[in-house]
# Entry
Amino acid sequence: MTQLTDRGTPLSSASAVDRGRAAALTASFLRGAIAAGLGLGMLAVLLTVMWIASPYPDGGADSALHVAAGLWLLAHCIELVRPETLSGGPAPLGVVPLLLVALPVWLIHRAARDTLEPEEGRPQLTALGAVATVSCGYLLVGGVVMLYVAGGPLTVHPLRALLGLPVVTLLAATAGAWTASGRPRGPLPLWLPGPVRTALARTRTRAALRSGAAGALLLAGGGALLAGISLGWHGGAAHASFEQLAGDWSGRCGLLLLGVTLVPNAAIWGAAYALGPGFVLGTGATVTPFGVLGSPALPSFPLLAAVPEGPATALNWAVAAVPAVAGVAVAWFTLRVAVPPFAVREEAWSARDTALGAALGGAVCAALMALLAALAGGPLGNGRLASFGPAWWLTGGAALVWTVGLGVPVALLLRAWRLRTWRVKGAPDAERMSRAERRAARRAEKSAGQEAKRAGKKAGKKAWERAWEKAGKKAGKKEGTAVGAAVAEPALPAWWRAPLWWLGLRSGPGEAMAAGRADAVPPGSGSGSGNVPGAGGDPNVLDALDLRPAGAKAGVVDPDEEPYDFLAADAWHERGAREARWAAFKEASGRDPLADFPAVPQPPEPRDPAVPQPPPVEPPSGAR
# Structure
């Protein structure tokens, strides 16, 4: 009885963890399957809409879905086969639109990245588990699609499909897991040979990968620019081909979308053309900057209308600037790591390591261009149409020659320029400065110049005094007086000197006498530098205003006393000096200036009642 009433034992924590891990693996598997379904569904919807809008469809809805499934497999770099052609035999279709490849790659990358994001209440998968489960879910849907297209208008080669689809899926899923893990840069793999690992470690593999990728991007960008210029040059032929292939708006929209997906292919073809090997248009024609060799088999397509024609000219040879810029870019990106802008000679790479780094960057660029050239071309049929696009081995070899041939010497030259030494001016030849020391010296010189400039501004405040003294000397010479050369201020009218003296902007008679200019106050006159108006040159007043020491007044000269041409500001503003100036002014004027101002304010006058008064002004309603 107790066995029926007692509660069962709870599940162990280990079983709960196992169930959580199983749920996480299932969710990751479903993410991969959903990613495959999204890519297939987008193409199916697009092709179905175009089939509905087409006024003359060649088949039913099932045919449109078969074509969508075939394009989905083509986006995974799988060559398609047309079983029914005008010649009666199957014809391959191997030119893969590179922009179409970006759709499934992005979906797989995102599925693997989202799988590794932590979720509350669910255990975290490892990177290997996420890649395996996402790839399995994606490949399951891919296998179903391969079986579906077997009997349609576009089929696939089974062996190539079994090789191409897993490779693209695994690479995209691995990139997504690497991104979710924070893009770690671990050590080199152990399966590489020892000498190879040592050489790669010395040449800094990361810098080589970065410089090689930069060179490949510049080559592809230059190729796209050349393709766009050539398409604009042959715009009339491209427009005629566009109207010939599609008569209704639905067909033109489909042709336009196909042309857009082939734009990256045109960029790689243009890069191969600029590198020198060019590309083939069928088995019997090659297009290079030196001219067109053979008779091209050109199908009617707008992008193919941009192919150059006739013999080569100087304008065709100018495309060599594209690989030249790519080689310089490889050298520059290598130098940014080898010799940073503020590096000293001891921290920089050696010349051997710099050359090896630039060479390895050129090799990476060549490998990337060879891969892109292999993906950008392919067959369009049998016979003369069996080969279209650039040859991957020729394109990669030409890229290697350009980037290594230009990148290595340019990197060494830039390294020598950055690590150059400068001879110190006026120093022996043995004394030299590195680039960092030269920068420090320039900064010190600049700071010293700024300090000197600030000191000059401070010293320039006395310039007006020197100009004032010079003007006073000229005025004294003009009047013919002996004291004119010692006067520090030009003569001004009496009505102008008095206000300035009271404001403290001009020297008074006491200062003039203290400076040895007692004769500057002519007796009985109101002129002279610093004279008090109406003082009359009274000796007692002048003696009271004289602020010199007693020895100086008696004519005794102290040999240790330093000469000066002006009084200190403290002596002029002392209380005794101000009282003496005020007493002298009252004695000279004969009255007290403050007597004109009554001590008690007068009361206001009474208002006359007969005179109307203005009404009082009321404040606004909101004012208080």
User: Anything to note?
Assistant: Residues 13-53 form the longest helix (41 residues). The mean pLDDT is 76. The two ends are 93 Å apart (CA to CA).
